[in-house]
Amino acid sequence: MNILDKIVADKKKEVALKKALIPISQLEASVLFERKTISLATNLRNSNTGIIAEHKRRSPSKAVINQSLNVQDVAIGYETAGACGMSVLTDGKYFGGSLDDLLIARAAVKLPLLRKEFIIDSYQILEAKAYGADVILLIAAILTREEIKQLSATAKSLGMDVLLEVHNEEELNKSLMPSLDMLGVNNRNLKTFDVSLDISKALATKIPTDFVKVSESGISNIEAIKELQPYGYKGFLIGENFMKTDNPGINATAFIKSLSPNSSPKERGN
Questions:
Q1: Of 17, 19, 105, 117, which one's alpha carbon is 20 to 30 angstroms from that of 8?
Q2: pLDDT in tens, 7-35
Q3: Which residues pair with 58 in a beta bridge?
Q4: Model-level pTM?
């Protein structure tokens, strides 16, 4: 059983428990449920840098990344830096996150927030909306075409953007449908955890232009982004690179500034 299978098995138990504890009517009664969402896809289309900055305490591959930071400070730092959106990991067991992290980030900033989670049930999409998310992530590796269709339609009916993540051409082919806004290519092999930008490059031409292309994992420097932009990528999800520092906001600011077309060669580190 690989790590993804393990996470999904645990997630099924977790969702069943939550459903028994908190009825859908309670989620729908949340103050944030009626909030008008902000489109991450639109922000990325209009940006020259396309950074989606992540809040991530730990991961199965890296153990602890940063446990000491306050979500609110990280969110404000990312917004000040000029990020297009913020990804908030809400899985507790493997990533040390929670829905409260989403709530705290929502209270702190006006950025589009992505609930980064292993979504297997529409209940989790209602949760995301109730806790202030604007975007949900769907992972093709753990869902059938029918599930992707149903879950993405649920998100769209709530006014949310959908980012679908793929790892290979087979996942991409089964997933393409109009109810998606963004297609994310994960550069990490989920079986070996090795990272290669070649995955993003290879799949770039196979993603239709009506979807915003996002590259995820293993993007730790400006060069990686400059390498992927000619392939049509508009979004870049960066987690560990900012989170492993003492001040993710300041690091994101420097990173985004040096990516900006009007920054000087010196700023870009050339």
A1: 105
A2: 999 999 999 999 999 999 999 999 999 99
A3: 64
A4: 0.94
Nearest to 217 by CA among 99, 101, 127, 137: 137
Q: Which long-range contacts (CB under 8 A, 24 or more apart) does 142-151 make?
A: 142/4, 142/8, 142/118, 144/174, 145/174, 145/175, 147/120, 148/174, 148/175, 148/177, 148/180, 149/177, 149/179, 150/122, 151/119, 151/122, 151/125
**Domains of the chain, with CATH numbers?**
3-259 (3.20.20.70)
Which structure tokens are listed for 128? 């995301």
Query: Catalytic: 240?
Result: no
Residue of 216, 234, 240, 241 with catalytic role: 216
Q: What are phi and psi of 30, to 5 degrees?
A: -60, 145
Active site residue 165: yes
Whether 56 sits among the annotated catalytic residues: the reply is yes
Identified catalytic residue from 117, 127, 165, 171: 165
Q: Hunting for tokens 């591959």 — which residue is that?
A: 61
Among the listed residues 39, 54, 152, 175, the single catalytic one is 54
Q: Degrees (nearest 5) of the Cα angle 211, 216, 222? A: 105
Active site residue 147: no
Rounded to an integer, what distance in angstroms lies between the CA atom of residue 224 and that of residue 227?
5
Residue range 201-216, pLDDT digits in tens: 999 999 999 999 999 9
Strands 233-238 and 113-116: unpaired
DSSP class of 36: P
